[in-house]
Amino acid sequence: MPPSARHLTADTLAGLCRARALMRSSGLSVRDAAARTRLSPFQFIRRFHAVFGATPHQLRIAARVDRARRLLALTNRPVTEVCLDVGFSSLGSFSALFARRVGVSPSAYRARVWASTAPQNRAATLYPGCLALMGAAFAILEKQNGGAPVETGGVTANTRPAAPESGCASS
Amino acid sequence: MRIKLTSIMVDDQAKALRFCTAVFGFVAKHDIPVGEYRWITVVSPEGGDAELSLEPNANPAGRAFQEAMFAQGIPVAAFEVSDLAKEVERLQAAGVVFTQMPTPMGPVSIAVCADTCGNLIQLYQPSR
Q: What is the pTM of this model?
């Protein structure tokens, strides 16, 4: 890509943002989203990926999985209904995709959240306390270290237990 | 009281850690799984003792803030570099998109780029 393509105008940036919002909330196709930003589908996908770190398709899948997590944790609707609700037509492919992204099957995910958290606190498990994660992280690390204090300072202290790939709203 | 820890919200922690280390060149300091999320911080290999936390922005309130700032073209963090032109060239070669090319602004020169995790980041070089 030539250097000029690595510079986005405010208009294109705003257009990409609008396209992202629409593709997440509605079934807007990539072709239609591209047309709205006045880019060819090829250029649209290329720029979208350079700016958001994921293709439009990947982003839409991530949004669906995210919505499914919410419905599973916060409602008691059957898994099949949740699957259809977030835009999948096959329970098998929904479950497989969900398990790949979240680490467990939809029903196991629901069981885990419901078993570990009272109904009024379930939203909080979906929305982590952000900086509050620090306290929880160091408590976990201290436990793993058998009660030894955790080194928090110093650039060389690199605490890296094997981390699962399941992040938030992963792409 | 000291300022040693600051944070940015990211739409995907794994992607953010990859970008911050492989593209920006920061070094991972902490990466601790906490339930569905991770406590991740990075530091600069060029010194200074500040840590940057990569926070999951799963909270709809945080997401609304992040997306509004992004759409308005407003950076949420600023990192100092010693040679802005060179840094911009290096990052562009790595595929990073800039919304503002290096621009002198009084005592600093400023450029703004997308971090692929939902944020605009300002890079600045103090004028000599």
A: 0.84
